[in-house]
Amino acid sequence: MLLRAFLNQSVSYTLAGLYTLLWILPCVRSKTPDVDVMCIYSEDCILPCSFTPTDDAVVIQWYQQEKLIYSFRQDEEEPDDSSMSLFTDEVSKGNASLLLKDSSVQSRGRYKCVINATNAVKESFVILKVEAPISRISIEASATGQLQCSSHGLYPSPLLTWSTDPSTGNLQSRTRMSADSNGLYSVESTLQKVNKSSPITYICTVTSKYSSQSWKASLLQTEMVGKNGQELVIPCMAPKNLKNFTLTWTFTKKNKNKDILTYHSQTHKVMNQWEEEAELDLDKAQSGDGSLYLDDNEVSRHAGKYTCTFSGPRVTYIVQTSVTVSASSAAAQKEQSNSKLWVLAVVVAALAVLGVLYYLYRKYGGNPKASEEDTEMQAVKGKTEELPAEIRPLNGKGDS
Ligand SMILES: *[C@@H]1O[C@H](CO)[C@@H](O)[C@H](O)[C@H]1NC(C)=O
Ligand SMILES: *[C@@H]1O[C@H](CO)[C@@H](O)[C@H](O)[C@H]1NC(C)=O
Ligand SMILES: *[C@@H]1O[C@H](CO)[C@@H](O)[C@H](O)[C@H]1NC(C)=O
Ligand SMILES: *[C@@H]1O[C@H](CO)[C@@H](O)[C@H](O)[C@H]1NC(C)=O
């Protein structure tokens, strides 16, 4: 008996519970939370909206910030609008999602979807955000000893920061943000270089506010001295863990840029414009050592600025190396050859004098006519003095 009463009671409690739940549920359901949708600038995006399909025709209305932008009656033709449409085949299944084409900065905002059926009206909201993500970032050194970092066509306005490796305090930079007619931002920043004797890598980081995605561009400027007759190896190492990258080498002399070569890690292929003079070690390149090997002939012709660029996913890493050809070793070589010529000249002159003396001795047998000997000697002397004079112009050419 007791058990039965207890069961009866619990059943009625459960029923009461279910009953209240059924009352509460519709209230909860009608308060659907706003849906957040992120859309990529200039791409199509879908604003979701669904309803319980009924036999009666429904009216679907879409509002952007309380302004009616789209209205569709199920049994009528879809309005002709090139910028947005419904998925008409899906409407009968309760899908009233709006397809927004070619999104822009103006597409942002709060959208309201209203489903007007005969016995009920249902509203739901979508918050649309538009992002023009970072697609490129560039860094370069200006002639005035400053560095410039920039990125264009962004929405919303990004964050730009500078850092160095090794790190230094107190970086002085000026950052400007501007928007174009489409509302897309450009960020440009100028950094004052730090006074440091050792090479320093400058890193510019641009971060997107929505996706917190960071792009990095870094620049290292160094110098090196080449020697004639020696193979020149210009070092360039990829940042750590850079897997999928393109490596390019360019040469700048007198403000003219020339492509040297391009290497793709993905295909392991190299396109070399300087076939005869420059090459990579392909095995090393694969593991991120992009050092350039320059032929040992005519190193002096190779003096100039070499730029090595690693471009990977969201990373640009640049090393600029100014190559000069060792003045001391070049001059030493020239001096050496000059002194060799000197020795040769003196030996030739001495031999000539000896020859003449011997000839005179044989001819006049120790009974010389002083005047004739004098003139002959003068001619010889003149010759010996001319020799260094002939070398001098060579000297002059070499110095210039
Ligand atoms: C509505 O249909 C579109 C197009 O087929 C689909 O991408 C979307 O996920 C559907 N939405 C809902 C809420 O079913
Ligand atoms: C729903 O449609 C009916 C008839 O078409 C109209 O009178 C009513 O105002 C509509 N309700 C809303 C909220 O749009
Ligand atoms: C850096 O060096 C330059 C010249 O070498 C000097 O004019 C400048 O004041 C220095 N800057 C700082 C911050 O020390
Ligand atoms: C490597 O990069 C290229 C070009 O940036 C891209 O097309 C390719 O899908 C990438 N591969 C991998 C494995 O990430």
From TrEMBL:
UniProt key word Zinc-finger: no
Main location: membrane
Record region (Disordered): 368-400
Coiled coil: none
Location relative to the cell: Cell membrane
Gene Ontology CC, one term: external side of plasma membrane
Residues in Ig-like domain copies: 26-124, 199-326
TM region positions: 341-361
Entries under SMART domains matching the protein: IG
Pfam families: C2-set_3 (PF22705), V-set (PF07686)
Keywords tagged on the record: Cell membrane, Disulfide bond, Glycoprotein, Immunoglobulin domain, Membrane, Receptor, Signal, Transmembrane, Transmembrane helix
Signal peptide (from-to): 1-30
Membrane topology recorded in Swiss-Prot or TrEMBL: Single-pass type I membrane protein
Gene3D superfamilies: Immunoglobulins
GO annotation terms (biological process): cell surface receptor signaling pathway; cellular response to lipopolysaccharide; immune response; negative regulation of T cell proliferation; positive regulation of T cell proliferation; T cell costimulation
Keyword set includes Disulfide bond: yes
PANTHER family attached to this UniProt entry: BUTYROPHILIN SUBFAMILY 2 MEMBER A2-LIKE-RELATED, T-LYMPHOCYTE ACTIVATION ANTIGEN
Full protein name: Ig-like domain-containing protein
Lineage of the organism: Eukaryota, Metazoa, Chordata, Craniata, Vertebrata
